[in-house]
Amino acid sequence: MTAQTNRQFLLTQRPVGAVTRANFTFREEPVGTPAEGQILVKVEYLSLDPAMRGWMNEGKSYIPPVGLGQVMRALGVGKVVASRHPNFAVGDYVNGALGVQDYFLGEPTGFYKVDPNLAPLPRYLSALGMTGMTAYFALLDVGAPKAGDTVVISGAAGAVGSIAGQIAKLKGCQVVGIAGGKDKCQFLIDELGFDGAIDYKSEDVIAGLKRECPKGVDVYFDNVGGDILDAVLSRLNFKARVVICGAISQYNNKEAVKGPANYLALLVNRARMEGFVVMDYAAQYPAAGQEMAGWLATGQLKSKEDIVEGLETFPETLLKLFSGENFGKLVLKV
Ligand SMILES: NC(=O)c1ccc[n+]([C@@H]2O[C@H](COP(=O)([O-])OP(=O)(O)OC[C@H]3O[C@@H](n4cnc5c(N)ncnc54)[C@H](OP(=O)(O)O)[C@@H]3O)[C@@H](O)[C@H]2O)c1
Predict the structure, then answer these.
(1) DSSP H helical segments within the chain, as ranges?
(2) CB of 277 closer than 6 A to ligand 1?
(3) What's the first-to-final CA gap in the chain, in angstroms?
(4) Residues 6+ away with beta carbon under 8 Å from 300
(5) What integer pLDDT is reported at residue 1 of this predicted model?
(6) C-alpha 34 – ligand 1 centre gap (Å)
(7) Ligand 1 pocket, residue 233 CB under 6 Å
(8) How many angstroms does the Cα of residue 234 sit away from the middle of ligand 1?
(9) How far, in Å, is the centroid of ligand 1 from the Cα of 155?
(10) Chain centroid to CA 110: how far?
(11) Could you tell me if the CB of 248 is within 6 A of ligand 1?
(12) Could you tell me which residues are beta bridge partners of residue 42?
């Protein structure tokens, strides 16, 4: 690649089931120059998110799907290398929807500046980015935990789950994580201070919940859906809150999504289950980001990033989210 070449992954085929390299066209084209109101950004790190799988599907969702032939959508951080926009200057670092490519050229809609002197750039995609905001608002606003509550989190060793669990600990809750594998479960307890962990790959989740949450579950932060959601519903307490943050176990389904059979547990316990979309909280990101930065600075919050190098590895690296091979926030270094 020369400095003037932009490598891009275009979505050219909608996946059925898991993503494959064949769903994309890899293109190299010359880097353009900004028109009035546009900026040119050298992409440095891309956020790889389970939601990207949903963005590839046709149909109505909380944002439009990526169009066929378009650059695959991805959040990222990068450096402004040319600008014809009054709010962004050459040398600024920005966070925005940069796309799976070397250079973003366009209007910086929704972009904001980040400071690489205050935190390493990948952290603006993890605790200090959309991931951290998701954990913060989904837990505090929808989950509404009170000190002493038992909070259960699935996908607990992942990007969102690991942060949500630590925030619940900061709020004085009893926190139990559900994750795949011994190493991830040990990490939750030894490194992040969770009170308990359930390895869903090697034990029965209901048995694990009875052991780790003898007083039942007050808040369930769900990242995975499917059988694990059903298991936790069977252990809810009176007035429990179930946060539907995600359902990664269902994203590659070729058939219909599997809904929760145990939903009458909501009726019996006068509990509620509520969906969450982080973008609804955009106006509150700066205040939450400040609080998260404070917790990071004092060591009360730990952010783990799993950085993979090479734009060209994008399709295979994305799949790590679905096999559980990522450990922490999955970031692609371009
Ligand atoms: N609603 C929103 O606004 C919003 C915003 C951001 C993210 N999310 C959601 O939050 C969830 C977590 O996202 P993330 O970025 O933090 O990803 P992540 O947790 O870092 O990575 C995904 C993890 O999911 C687990 N997993 C994969 N397949 C699974 C299955 N079949 N059953 C159980 N667990 C499975 C794997 O962990 P194990 O090794 O433990 O299996 C994997 O490491 C996703 O559902 C995502 O869509 C929602």
Answers:
(1) 51-55, 130-137, 159-170, 182-190, 205-212, 226-233, 264-268, 285-297, 314-323
(2) yes
(3) 12
(4) 166, 170
(5) 42
(6) 36
(7) no
(8) 21
(9) 5
(10) 18
(11) yes
(12) 79, 103
Measured in Å, residue 224 CA sits from the centre of ligand 1 at 6
- Rounded to whole angstroms, the Cα distance separating 107 from 64 reads 18
> Which atom of ligand 1 sits closest to the CA of residue 134?
5
Answer yes or no: are the C-beta atoms of 219 and 239 closer than 8 Å.
Answer: no
In DSSP terms, which residues pair with 309 in a beta bridge? 333
State the pLDDT at residue 2: 46
Tell me the CA–centroid distance for residue 61 and ligand 1, in Å: 18
State how far the Cα of 330 lies from the Cα of 317, in Å rounded to an integer. Answer: 8
Whether the CB of 321 sits within 6 Å of ligand 1: yes
Kindly state if the Cβ of 54 falls inside 6 Å of ligand 1: no
Q: What gap in Å lies between CA 238 and CA 271, rounded to an integer?
A: 6
DSSP string, 138-157: IIIIII---TT-EEEEESTT
Q: Give the pLDDT confidence score for residue 15 in this predicted structure.
A: 96
pLDDT in tens, the chain (334 residues): 445 899 999 999 999 999 999 999 999 999 999 999 999 999 999 999 999 999 999 988 889 999 999 999 999 999 999 999 999 999 999 999 999 999 999 999 999 999 999 999 999 999 999 999 999 999 999 999 999 999 999 999 999 999 999 999 999 999 999 999 999 999 999 999 999 999 999 999 999 999 999 999 999 999 999 999 999 999 999 999 999 999 999 999 998 899 999 999 999 999 999 999 999 999 999 999 999 999 999 999 999 999 999 999 999 999 999 999 999 999 999 9
Residue type, 295: W
pLDDT of residue 3: 57
Mutation to probe ligand 1, out of 192, 224, 257 (largest number of atoms < 8 A from CB): 224
The pick from 223, 245, 274, 281 for probing ligand 1's pocket by mutation, whose C-beta has the most ligand atoms within 8 angstroms, reads 223
E strand map for the chain: 5-11, 24-30, 39-47, 75-83, 93-97, 103-106, 112-114, 150-154, 174-179, 196-199, 217-222, 236-244, 272-275, 305-309, 329-333
Length of the chain, please?
A: 334
